[in-house]
Design brief:
Layout: E1 8-9, H1 13-18, E2 24-30, H2 34-49, E3 52-54, E4 63-68, H3 73-95, E5 101-105, H4 106-112, H5 114-119, E6 125-127, H6 135-144, E7 148-150, H7 158-161, H8 167-171, E8 176-180, E9 182-183, H9 194-198, E10 202-203, H10 206-218, E11 223-227, E12 236-238, E13 241-243, H11 245-253, E14 260-264, H12 273-281, E15 288-290, H13 298-303, H14 310-323, E16 328-335, H15 342-355, E17 359-364, H16 382-406, E18 410-419, E19 426-429, E20 435-438, E21 448-456, E22 461-470, E23 478-479
The structure holds S-adenosyl-L-homocysteine (SAH), iron/sulfur cluster and FE3-S4 cluster.
């Protein structure tokens, strides 16, 4: 499961149902990237240790945590409207003599700190992405006085203090889970707030990652997505040596029960030979690569401080395709970066046409306070950004549909993750991260099965069971004559 730039409610019904009755309940709502999804899960683990069960909605919660994103203006401003609604809820509760606490976590917390409490005094706790392991202390401080802020980048990192969650919570992770292996960013793209909100690049030691993956696999997780802001810049300690992401993937692949591995998000500069070779050599590594390029014009790439040219990106893709010809490619794009001319924008379209993407995310440039690009000359008018975005998205959508149509007629290994809307229906993912709906497949949830792809819908595929036997997790593509 890859979740990007979406709202995710991390309250897990299965875990709630299985949990013993608990006095207090927390509701965590996450915005932004997969790093936040992972952090929300870990905050839930910590709060479980403090006696908090999971609430099904904010109305039902004693503590509501907004896990926020600062990447674009709209994402960031949305938090304040959410907080306004929570304040009303808190006031209503108070009239009935009930208490409710509000915490703001994530990247807006890091970027705005005290300012959040100044703008919304109903907030009890502000906690940054590197300090949420101190939630228990913050809760007890907040019980004594209002408005507690912790946005340090502590010396002792959170991974050293995070405990293994209970078996019950681990079972609630489902069959596909994120594991953070790297945090922070030293790249300083001129448009981006991440280096300021998440701090410098830091890699988690191999042993700590393997421990977490082992406990997830023991609890039934079949697919691990290794995540980081710059995951392929990973350089973690491996008993005194430095391991790269390729090394880490090999070690994770050797663990029993791990049938699929993915990683995200990568930077083109860090696509080394070892990682590219892993796509050829490690069968559990799924044929899917999300590699943001942002733009196709060298002038704009330089102004963005992306540290590579368009042709270098094209060359990397050629090497990746040579290692794994069927790989599905995905990317991020920004339109309307300061100074972007029609010619520059055409270069982005040309790059997209040359490569052919299976999926992509594209955004209008958003001016972020404190970033170098926000002060650059040549800011682009909103209507121009909108027009360019529409043109780019139409092209990317055509490519996505073409990719999906090309899988019709193939038999693909599908990892089934959850029930569908119809009785007996199950939903899973192909190696290329496409969502597949299959009837009469509920018994396959938690396993990988061979599925014949029979048709496409706008956002998913329609499949039919070929065999109930478990197939190889990775499975190469076959064409069915059926
Ligand atoms: N570390 C990752 C992800 C960063 S944020 C990477 O380097 O790819 C995810 C995406 O948000 C970026 O790839 C970029 O396309 C987009 N983004 C970041 N800052 C932005 C801004 N100021 N305006 C518009 N889009 C932005
Ligand atoms: Fe932001 Fe660039 Fe770092 Fe990605 S690589 S997080 S876009 S600064
Ligand atoms: Fe948003 Fe922070 Fe992720 S700004 S994209 S939640 S790293």
């Amino acid at each position: 499961m890859i979740v990007r730039m979406n709202e995710v409610k991390t309250s897990d019904a299965r875990a709630t149902a299985a949990a013993a009755p608990q006095a207090r309940k927390v509701f965590i709502k996450s915005f932004g990237c997969q790093m936040n999804v992972y952090d929300a899960t870990r905050m839930g683990d910590i709060l479980e240790g403090e006696g908090y069960g999971q609430a099904a909605s904010p109305e039902d919660a004693d503590l509501v945590v907004l896990n926020t994103c600062h990447i674009r203006e709209r994402a960031s401003e949305k938090i304040f409207s959410e907080l306004g609604k929570l304040r009303e809820m808190k006031e209503e509760r108070a009239l009935n003599g009930q208490a409710m606490q509000i915490a703001v976590a994530g990247c807006v917390a890091q970027a705005e700190g005290n300012e959040i409490i100044r703008r919304q005094s109903a907030v009890d706790i502000v906690v940054g992405p590197q300090s949420y392991h101190r939630f228990p202390e913050l809760l007890s401080k907040a019980a004594r006085r209002s408005g507690v802020v912790d946005t340090d980048f502590p010396v002792v990192d959170k991974f050293q203090t995070l405990q293994t969650p209970s078996p019950q919570r681990l079972r609630g992770r489902g069959y596909s889970a994120f594991v953070t292996v790297q945090e922070g960013c030293d790249k300083f793209c001129t448009f981006c707030v991440v280096p300021y909100t998440r701090g410098a690049e830091m890699s988690r030691p191999i042993a700590s990652i393997l421990d977490e993956v082992r406990s997830l696999a023991d609890a039934g997780v079949r697919e691990i997505t290794l995540i980081g802001q710059n995951v392929n810049a990973y350089h973690g300690d491996d008993a005194g040596r430095v391991a790269s992401l390729g090394d880490l993937i090999e070690r994770v692949a050797a663990l029993p029960g791990v049938e699929r591995i993915r990683y995200t998000t990568s930077h083109p500069r860090d696509m080394d030979d070892r990682l590219i070779a892993a796509h050829r050599d490690i069968p559990q590594l799924m044929p899917y690569l999300h590699l943001p390029v942002q733009a196709g014009s060298d002038r704009i790439l330089a102004a963005m401080n992306r540290k590579h040219k368009a042709q270098e990106f094209i060359d990397i893709i050629a090497r990746v395709r040579a290692a794994r010809p069927d790989i599905a490619l995905s990317s991020d794009f920004i339109v309307g970066f300061p100074g972007e001319s029609d010619v520059d924008f055409e270069a982005t379209l040309a790059l997209v046409r040359e490569i052919g993407f299976a999926s992509a995310y594209s955004f209008m440039y958003s001016q972020r306070p404190g970033t170098p690009a926000s002060d650059m000359d040549g800011q682009i008018e909103a209507h121009v950004k909108q027009e360019r975005l529409a043109v780019l998205q139409e092209l990317l959508e055509q490519q996505r549909q073409a990719f999906n149509r090309a899988t019709v007629g193939q038999i693909l290994p599908v990892l089934f993750e959850k029930k569908g809307r119809h009785a007996g229906q199950a939903i899973g993912r192909t190696p290329y991260l496409q969502s597949v709906h299959v009837e009469d497949a509920e018994a396959l949830i938690g396993t990988i099965a061979s599925i014949s792809i029979e048709g496409t819908w706008p956002n998913s595929l329609k499949g039919r069971i070929v065999t109930h036997e478990r197939s190889a997790a990775h499975g190469s593509m076959q064409t069915t004559n059926a």
